[in-house]
Specification:
mainly alpha; about 220 residues; MetI-like fold
Length: about 220
């Protein structure tokens, strides 16, 4: 099989890789903020629940979580597994990355000077207005490097979808490599992931530059 043929076949799975990536970000970024806010709640049961969520999701392998979300309903409740495996894959990725994003958000929120809250109170802002209009933009600026690092990791982690036989790019490359007894598909996959991450790094760099207005 020629190199071009391998690239074309693997490109068929690139769309599914992108789907995992973008859908995970769409769900995990806001979910992470919710978990971070729950973790900081003064109501102990809520805070305890968020801490446990973060501990479990960060302390167990993503591969195990993929298997649990995809096949768990069948083994536990005898519910047939959905034919569209994109749904459980995105759910597993989203809840996993939300736990990491939550800790990044928390570190950013905790780093904000108390004086900013006091100044906004003097100006007549409510707690919600203070958080949304003053604190949150600065938090995002501060956590962008850490957030970028997790997003880059997400690009590479999409390859774990092969665990549940979801036909994304790496799964197709692995199948070609096995059938052709060739390492070339893995090299092609590596190039794809590298280029993807270069693009992600460029975009996040531009966002960070645009938000330099909030640099302290």
């Amino acid at each position: 099989m020629s190199l071009m043929t391998i690239i074309v076949k693997m490109s068929e799975g690139l769309g599914k890789t992108c789907a995992i990536f973008f859908l995970t970000l769409i769900f995990a970024i806001p979910l992470g903020m919710i978990v971070a806010l729950l973790r900081g709640s003064r109501f102990k049961p809520v805070s305890w629940f968020a801490k446990t969520y973060i501990s479990v999701l960060r302390g167990t392998p993503l591969m195990l979580q993929l298997l649990a979300v995809t096949y768990g309903p069948y083994y536990l409740f005898n519910i047939s597994v959905s034919r569209n495996k994109l749904i459980p894959v995105v759910i597993a990725f989203s809840i996993n990355y939300a736990a990491y994003f939550a800790e990044i958000y928390r570190s950013g929120i905790d780093s904000m000077p108390v004086g900013q809250y006091e100044a906004s109170q003097v100006l007549g802002y409510s707690k919600i207005q203070t958080f949304i209009k003053i604190i949150l933009p600065q938090v995002f600026r501060r956590i962008l490097p850490a957030l970028t690092n997790e997003i880059v990791t997400l690009v590479k982690d999409t390859s774990l979808a092969f665990t549940v036989s979801y036909q994304e790019m790496f799964t197709i490359g692995k199948q070609i490599a096995n059938s052709q007894t060739s390492f070339v598909p893995f090299v092609v996959a590596g190039v794809f992931y590298y280029v993807f991450n270069v693009i992600v790094g460029f975009v996040m760099g531009r966002i960070e530059k645009r938000m330099s207005y909030y640099k302290m």
